[in-house]
Amino acid sequence: MIMDIIGTLFSKFPLVGAIGAVALIMIFSYWFANVIGQKRMGSAIAIILSLALAFVAGKATEGSGGLADVSYFSGFALLGGSMLRDFAIVSTAFGVKLENLKKAGLPGIVALFVGVIFSFTVGVIVAVALGYTSAVDAATIGAGTVTFIVGPVTGTALGASSDVVALSIAAGVVKSILTMIITPLIAKKIKLDNPTTAMVYGGLIGTTSGVAGGLAATDAKLVPYGAMTATFYTGLGSLLCPSIGYMIVNLFL
Amino acid sequence: MEIYGLGIVAFCLYAGSFVGYFIGSLLGISGNVGGVGFAMLLLVLISNYVETKKGGWSERTQSGIYLLSALYIPIVVAMAGKQNVVAAFSGGAVAFLAGGLATILSMFLVPVIGKLGKQNSIDE
Questions:
Q1: Domain residues of chain B, as ranges?
Q2: CA pair distance A141, A131, nearest whole angstrom
Q3: A to B CB pairs, distance under 8 Å
Q4: What is the model's pTM?
Q5: Among A19, A186, A238, beta carbon nearest to B107
Q6: Domain termination site, one of A81, A105, A139
Q7: A93-129 pLDDT tens trace
């Protein structure tokens, strides 16, 4: 009887249950990040943990919806769905100043375009080289290489399958985590020690969590400069990848 | 009011997505092409316009928008949780190679493009 009531709770309030579950995942991840002395990796760890749970759920249910296929966690489909995701992404543009766009100037804008096009191209080449030869699949994986948001946005627009979308997210997550880890290590080598290169760096790498984490680990004073250009990266990627990017890929494949 | 902030973002998402779906149908792709990007650009333009004309939105309106951006990472965590990871792992090398190569090669472009900045004076 008790189990029935608990089951009813999860089926009556699925979104609330998902929010609670994500809160638990994040509490654990931030605690773990703190324990290993990498405070800024909290969100990256939470994403990996969530992907790992989706892996376990996928194995257990043999479904394609990860945790959302487990009846207790069906709310993940709504909380992690494209509606709330797009709603939240748009809100992050608030606070970006037009004059900051101009201040970032030529190198920032060049870095943004080069960064998005370069990452997309590398992603597409790797995808094709490893056998994802349909234009939709290659463009989605290339877009995921831009950031783990641009991947699903592009994949949804082009009608890519869920496993390719998952791959694109994984590529973006690899980029984000790697950025946090190697930025402080190679900062000197790439002359990442002043506002100009910090803005260029933000525009080239673009993954906001990776850039903020990596710069904070290098020199906290550089964070706003890098974050400023990085804010535009996902928007520019969402604009270019499913449109011009896909059309160009479609020409070659 | 907080709901005004949520409403502003909702308006931007609808307006941006309208453009996105319009371009999508022009291109013959049934999808929202760049709508999120247009919505972000619209929010930047509107918020900067209000900032210069009226000194910005009220604090409570702003906190509605900040509530949404605070939910960004948790939503991404939930999004990761509903993916078909099992299928992704069967071709996992793509993710590691694509993400890894793009990151490391991009890093080495930083000093190259940074040189452009030396010719342009930027306030430090």
A1: 1-83, 84-115
A2: 12
A3: 340
A4: 0.73
A5: A186
A6: A81
A7: 787 666 655 665 688 889 999 999 999 999 999 999 9
Residue A55 placed within a domain: yes
Backbone angles phi, psi at B55, to 5 degrees: 75, 20
Q: Quick check: A92 and B84 CB within 8 A?
A: no
Interchain pair A235, B101: CB under 8 A: no
Kindly state the helix (H) or strand (E) to which residue B94 belongs, with its residue range.
helix B93-107
How many structural domains does chain A have? Answer: 2
Do A16 and A99 reside in the same domain of the chain? no
- DSSP secondary structure, A111-169, as one string: HHHHHHHHHHHHHHHHHHHTT--SHHHHHHHHHHHH-TTHHHHHHHHHT--HHHHHHHH
A88 located within any domain = no
Q: Find the CB nearest B72 among A22, A89, A165.
A: A89
- The verdict on residue A87 lying in a domain is no
Query: In the numeric block, which tokens belong to residue B35?
Result: 């709508």
Q: Which domain holds residue A38?
A: 2-81
Across the interface, which of B81, B103, B107 has its CB nearest the CB of A53?
B81
Q: What is the pLDDT of residues B90-105, one digit of tens each?
A: 657 888 899 999 999 9
Number of Cα atoms under 13 Å in the Cβ half of residue A251: 5
| Same-domain pairing of A162 and A100 | yes
Residue A234 lies in a domain: yes
